[in-house]
């Protein structure tokens, strides 16, 4: 097999598996001696380097692997992350509002109020830097207490958590009255 | 002893007709309708009658051929321009159209053979690229959300919670949180299906009793059927429900949390 | 971005993901206009071809994908057995050719042309990822419209629906000539 063809064959193999291939395995597929295959792989590696291609061929012990040239990581990251622009979904918004107005609050409490599992939402809000762990509650199981971050305050232009508009007891009573009238019974809380 | 004749397989009545036209080396635009109809009917008589739906397609064409044969015996009809109408014209047009696609299918097959020699590559995006999460700009995230709006959201959540409280029970002095949640049951049933493959509804209930549990578990089963995670069957009315995990179904594709927003 | 670097960046993206990437997505990741990206991808495709590399770059509608050069099929088969693609029966091929050339097409139309019920064939083709639902026709009963997939383009070596081998009047004339020579008569159509 002439040089250029051998190099191309090695390129095809490294491309299609994407993983490291042992020289011995390539030699078997090519029906050629291992040292010729090795020389071919080295020649391919050199070419990728010299021509500044988007890929590189690296040697790992007795195997070769094709990898992406590192200088393009930024572009790959933009390619991979572009469809998932983070947004505050309804679930996140709700959870954020509960944390903001009930802080410090535990996850079971958030879930009791929202009525749904909120693991995912809380984790996301932490990742986004809007919610943080404050410590642990002196309760059985010592659950984590959550609250809003400084970033949250900055974004909403409030100087302190105490500046958050309060939910008035009157309102709570309103809700209760409504629920009662709908059910036609008296609720005793 | 009855002789069984191996019939060549045709892909439908048009395919059979084309086959007969080729075998007789006749012109598709001038089909000897009597000969072809006789041969067509011969073939159909020898066909396996078991598959009625296949058979009926061949019978429709047989009727069409006989109708054409009859029309050929009558004086030719003429169109508006006084040209004689060939009773075979429609059939010829259909045969040509069918033959064209059949021909193209051979062309495609050749291409497929050639294209099979190309190999593709699995995704090998490096983990550091895959795991990368862009830093979120909180200003961007929050957008035009105001504190007032956030407060409204909170009120709505609290209000929903108040609505959820059963007013009758609460008048007895205790407010009990529902002990079985649909979202939890969904995950449980999905995991159970993954682990056991095939099982019955009563197997599922063995773990936990109680009417609420039974109802919520049943709802979970219905939901998972909807998502194609499991299949269920029942051999007799009021019999046990047999559940089978669907192979390859992926529970991860179901976002329980957002789908069951507000469900308790 | 200079030419060589753009080509390398496209190579890096196509190599790393292994999938078909839309020009628009590459353009976004590269922060460049789509037509420049398109030219870059074509230049890369040309290079692979001219230099007889082990890989090729193919166009699939508005996307590009990297694949191995076909001449190395035998070597790659020896390296590892790739999952065998399902073979298509005559009935499936026939149905597929109707869908490919008539798309968007409804099931009743497919059945009219083939003269047989085609439920099974259409379902199988969908299962194999060669055919997909495109939407519904504005006709009574709102029947589903079918068309081919990107996988179809790959498996049949066409870069776009418009590049399908032509079904031409010439071909129809061939049929006619064939029929004439077989029958030894002249046909007047």
What does this entry look like structurally?
The complex is a heterotrimer, with two copies of chain A (189 residues) and one copy of chain B (264 residues). Chain A has helices spanning 3-17, 23-30, 34-50, 73-81, 90-102, 107-114, 119-127, 150-156, 169-183, and strands at residues 21-22, 55-60, 63-68, 105-106, 131-136, 144-148. Chain A is α+β, with helices and mostly antiparallel strands and 189 residues long. Chain A has two domains: 3-73, Arc Repressor Mutant, subunit A (Orthogonal Bundle), CATH 1.10.10; 90-183, Orthogonal Bundle (Arc Repressor Mutant, subunit A). In chain A, a hairpin with a 2-residue loop joins strand 2 and strand 3. In chain A, helix 2 (23-30) crosses helix 3 (34-50). The radius of gyration of chain A is 30 Å and the shape is elongated. By secondary structure, chain B is mainly alpha-helical. Chain B folds into two domains: 13-115, no CATH class; 134-163 and 178-259, Arc Repressor Mutant, subunit A, CATH 1.10.10. In chain B, strands 1-3-2 form a three-stranded antiparallel beta sheet. The mean pLDDT of chain B is 78.
Query: For the terminal residues of chain A, how far apart are their CA atoms?
Result: 88 Å
Largest interface pair = A-B, 64 and 57 residues
Q: How would a textbook summarize the main sheet of chain B?
A: 3 strands, antiparallel
Beta-strand portion of chain B reads under 5%
Put simply, the count of helices of chain A is 9
DSSP E strands of chain A, number: 6
Query: Main β-sheet of chain A, in a few words?
Result: 3 strands, antiparallel
Assigned CATH architecture of the largest domain in chain A: Orthogonal Bundle
Strand order of the largest sheet of chain A: 1-3-2
Average pLDDT for all residues of chain B: 78
Q: Indicate the percent of residues in helices of chain B.
A: 55-70%
CATH fold descriptor of the largest domain in chain B:
Arc Repressor Mutant, subunit A
Question: Percent helix among the residues of chain A?
Answer: 40-55%
What's the domain count of chain B?
A: 2
Euclidean distance between termini CA atoms of chain B: 72 Å
The strand line-up of the biggest sheet of chain B is: 1-3-2
The total count of helices of chain B amounts to 12
Tell me the CATH superfamily of the largest domain in chain A: Winged helix-like DNA-binding domain superfamily/Winged helix DNA-binding domain
Number of strands of chain B: 3
């Amino acid at each position: 097999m002439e040089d250029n063809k051998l190099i191309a064959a090695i390129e095809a193999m490294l491309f299609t598996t994407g993983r490291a291939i042992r020289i011995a395995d390539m030699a078997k597929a090519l029906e050629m001696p291992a040292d010729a295959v090795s020389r071919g792989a080295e020649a391919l590696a050199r070419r990728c380097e010299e021509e500044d291609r988007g890929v590189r061929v690296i040697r790992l012990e007795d195997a070769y692997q094709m990898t992406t040239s590192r200088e393009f990581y930024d572009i790959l990251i933009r390619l991979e992350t572009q469809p998932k622009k983070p947004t505050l979904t309804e679930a996140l918004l709700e959870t954020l509002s509960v944390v903001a107005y009930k802080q410090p609050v535990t996850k079971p409490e958030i879930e009791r109020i929202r009525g749904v599992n909120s693991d995912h939402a809380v984790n996301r809000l932490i990742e986004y830097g809007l919610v943080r762990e404050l410590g642990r509650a002196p309760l059985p199981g010592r659950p984590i207490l959550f609250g809003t971050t400084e970033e949250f305050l900055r974004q909403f232009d409030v100087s302190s958590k105490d500046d958050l508009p309060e939910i008035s007891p009157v309102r709570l009573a309103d809700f209760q009255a409504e629920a009662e009238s709908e059910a036609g019974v008296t609720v005793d809380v | 002893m009855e002789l069984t004749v191996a019939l060549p397989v045709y892909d439908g009545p048009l395919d059979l007709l084309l086959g007969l036209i080729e075998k007789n080396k006749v012109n598709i635009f001038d089909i000897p309708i009597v000969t072809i109809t006789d041969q067509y009917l011969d073939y159909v008589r020898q066909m396996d009658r078991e598959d009625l739906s296949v058979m009926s397609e061949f019978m429709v064409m047989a009727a069409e051929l006989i109708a054409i044969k009859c029309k050929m015996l009558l004086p030719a009809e003429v169109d508006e321009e006084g040209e004689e109408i060939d009773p075979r014209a429609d059939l010829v047009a259909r045969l040509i159209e069918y033959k064209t696609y059949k021909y193209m299918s051979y062309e495609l097959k050749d291409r497929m053979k050639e294209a099979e020699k190309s190999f593709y590559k699995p995704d090998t995006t490096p983990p550091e690229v895959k795991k990368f999460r862009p830093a979120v700009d909180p200003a961007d995230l929050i957008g035009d959300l105001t504190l007032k709006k956030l407060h409204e959201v909170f009120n709505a959540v609290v209000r929903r919670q108040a609505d959820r409280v059963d007013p009758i029970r609460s008048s007895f002095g205790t407010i009990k949180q529902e002990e079985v949640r649909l979202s939890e049951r969904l995950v449980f049933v999905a995991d159970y299906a993954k682990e056991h493959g095939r099982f019955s509804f009563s197997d599922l209930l063995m773990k936990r009793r109680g009417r609420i549990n039974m109802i919520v578990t049943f709802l979970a089963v219905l939901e998972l059927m909807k998502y194609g995670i499991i299949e269920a069957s029942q051999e007799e009315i009021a019999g046990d429900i047999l559940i089978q995990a669907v192979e390859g179904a992926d529970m991860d594709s179901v976002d329980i949390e957002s789908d069951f927003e507000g469900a308790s």
